[in-house]
């Protein structure tokens, strides 16, 4: 607990959070879909991975196996294509939480996290 008595809470599944998650997804997608073919291709995944590690002050050169594994994580519907909808699904899961209350995040939309 903070010395001021303030206890921050994080709400999941609010409409503003959903829209913000979609905006983040769109920005990420546009940043890495270099050829603008509305898919993130395998050769566009390595820079995404490198940037993620760079944001943690780490250097990383992904192998083909790393790229293949990450592409399976990004391809949320397993159709062999990484689309904006796939990135939106990831952002919704990790930035908003379980909007439906059933996707396994462990939090229902009405729950809050308290320190």
List keywords for this structure.
two-stranded antiparallel sheet; Recoverin, domain 1; 115 residues; disordered C terminus; 48% helix; 4 helices; 2 strands; mainly alpha; globular; single chain
Looking at the overall shape, the CATH architecture is: Orthogonal Bundle
H/E series, N to C? Answer: EHHHHE
Mean of pLDDT: 80
With helices defined by DSSP (H or I, 4 residues minimum), what is the helix count? Answer: 4
Q: Assign an overall shape.
A: globular
Oligomer category: single chain
Number of strands: 2
Q: Runs with pLDDT <50, length 5+?
A: 1-10, 101-115
What share of the residues does DSSP label as strand, in percent? under 5%
Secondary structure blueprint with pairings:
Layout: E1 10-11, H1 15-32, H2 42-54, H3 64-74, H4 84-96, E2 112-113
Antiparallel strand pairs: 1-2
Helix pairs in contact: 1-4, 2-3
Question: Summarize this, please?
Answer:
This protein is mainly alpha-helical. The chain has helices at residues 15-32, 42-54, 64-74, 84-96, and strands at 10-11, 112-113. The protein has a two-stranded antiparallel ribbon.
Structure explained in plain terms:
Helix 1 packs across helix 4 and helix 2 crosses helix 3. The protein has 115 residues and is mainly α. The protein starts with 9 loop residues before the first strand and ends with a strand. The N terminus and C terminus are likely disordered. It has a single domain, classed as EF-hand (Recoverin, domain 1, Orthogonal Bundle), CATH 1.10.238. It has 4 helices and 2 strands, in the order βααααβ. Helices cover 48% and strands 3% of the residues.
